[in-house]
Amino acid sequence: MKKRTASLLIAAALVLTLAQPLTAAGKKDSASKTLTVGATPVPHAELLNLIKDDLASQGITLEVVEFTDYVTPNTALIAGDLDANFFQHIPYLESNAEWTTKLVSAFGVHVEPFGIFSLKVKNIADLPGGATIAIPNDPTNGGRALLLLQANGLITLKNNAGLEATPQDITGNPKNFKFRELESAQLPRSLEDVDAAAINGNYALEAGLVPTRDALIIEGAQSPYVNIVVVQKGRENDADIQALSKALRSAKIKDYIAGKWPDGSVVAVF
C-alpha cells in the first residue's frame, strides 16, 4: 500500500512539473498581440512587410491590409477594424472633421514628392492652350496640385485659398487650362485621356513612373506632406504602436528607402 501511495505521489509530482511550463507557455501565447495596419501598396505596405519579423520577435504579429483608395482606411480605423493605417499626410487627415475628432498622427515616416506628369509633352512649357489637367478630387491633394502649378507660374490662386484650394479659387489662368477632378488612384490611368495629370508619389510609383525623372514639375525635397501612421486618439502611446514606430523609423528602413529609391522618389524624414 505504501509503495502504491508513493508511486501516486511521484506521478502527481510529474504532472505538476510538466504542467508548469505548459501554463507558462499559455500565458506567453495570451500575451501575444496582433497589430492590424491598413496601407496603400507602394511604398507603405512594402515597408510594413519588411518589419514583420522585427515585431514578431517582440510578440507582435503584424497583419497588413492593403487598400487602393484614400477614404476606406480611415473609415475602417474609426470602426475598429484596423489598429492603425499608413497612407496619408496631416493636411489630408485634417480635411475631414470626423477624422480630426477621432484620429491622430502617431508618427511620420517619409515624403513622396508630388508631381505633374504627361505622356504628350516633355516640358511643362509645351502644354498647349486649353490643355486638360487631371487633379485629385479630394480637397488637400487637389489643393496640393494647384499650389504646385501656382509655384511654377502656371496659374494664380486667391490669396486665401490655402491648402484646400479648388479650381474655383483660380484667379489667373493664362493658358486657359481645364481641370478634371478624379479619384487619386485613377490619375495614372487618366494620362492617356488628358494632357497632364497631378499624381501622388505612391500611385506614380505603382504605375512605374519615377517622379524625379518623369514628372514635368515636382515638389521640392522639403515638402510638408509627410506620410504618417494614424491611430485612434488615445492609442498613440500604446506599447504596440511605439514598437511599430521604432521598427518603421529604424536604420533598416532608412537604408532600404535610400537603396530602393536613390532618385528621391521616397525620402525618409527620420
Describe this structure in words.
The protein has 270 residues and is α/β, with parallel strands linked by helices. It has two domains: 32-112 and 225-268, 3-Layer(aba) Sandwich (D-Maltodextrin-Binding Protein, domain 2), CATH 3.40.190; 115-218, Periplasmic binding protein-like II (D-Maltodextrin-Binding Protein, domain 2, 3-Layer(aba) Sandwich), CATH 3.40.190.10. Helix content is 41%, strand content 23%. The chain is built from twelve helices and 13 strands. The protein has helices spanning 2-31, 41-50, 52-56, 72-79, 90-93, 97-102, 139-151, 187-190, 201-206, 211-214, 239-248, 251-260, and strands at residues 33-39, 60-66, 84-89, 103-111, 115-117, 132-136, 156-157, 170-172, 178-182, 196-199, 217-218, 226-232, 267-268. A six-stranded mixed β-sheet has the order 2-1-3-12-4-13, with helices on both faces. A five-stranded mixed β-sheet has the order 9-6-10-5-11. Mean pLDDT is 89; it is low at 1-30.
